[in-house]
Amino acid sequence: MVDFDLKKENDAEGGEEVYSKAVRAGRRTYFFDVKATRNDDYFLTITESRKKLGKDGNFFFDKHKIYLYKEDFAKFADGLEEVVNFIKEHKPEFFMEQEAEATAGELSVDEEFEKL
Question: Which CATH class is domain 4-115?
Answer without folding.
Answer: alpha beta
